Prior knowledge:
Elements: H1 17-28, E1 35-40, E2 49-57, E3 91-104, E4 109-120, H2 131-145, E5 150-162, E6 174-185, H3 191-204
Antiparallel strand pairs: 1-2, 2-3, 3-4, 4-6, 5-6
Amino acid sequence: MTVTGLHRLPAGLEPPASFRDALADLRSARPRPQVRLRLIPEPAGLAPFAVALAADVRPTPDDAGPAAPAGVAEGPEPAGAGVVGAGAALATGRFMLLHDPAGSAAWNGTFRVVTYIRAGLEPDVATDHLAGAVAWAWLVEALEQRHAQHFDAGGTATRQLAESFGALAGEPAWTDLELRASWTPAPRDLGAHLEAWSDMICAFAGLPPDPPGGP
């Protein structure tokens, strides 16, 4: 799939060529087909120019019965939805590209990618102390495999467990893993960063890697 709809710009501001080029890169990106992207309002005040995408991962017919990576459930909808339906999302997330033409000392550059991913965990691995390290490894590997040049990457992995009691004792327990991460991309081929992120969220969803030569 290709990314469309990336034409909205902040009102009253003339976008610099660098940001227009960045949007063109994102539009030409080819994220994995299981990742459903949609344009959402960007948070105010983070940067003079920004674009934000929300995503969820749903299996395609070719994904029947994937083997989930260790610690990641194949079916539960994230965020403790309680009831998993036939069309439940396997993972959800957000991808934001921020741009400050004047540069930012905090970013060490003029662009910054800010991301969030959440997916369900198998209950028996919710307390696995390696779960966060595995999530971070997926991020590092995805960026490397897509040749998405970057630096100053950082992030936080959080595991959540919810159990119900009393009148709610019949509600199913749920666990999930969240990864909040950001990095400064090299200011070229920014579409590779969106493609890498699509690989990350598919890994969280328990889908196998794309074969060589895949989209």
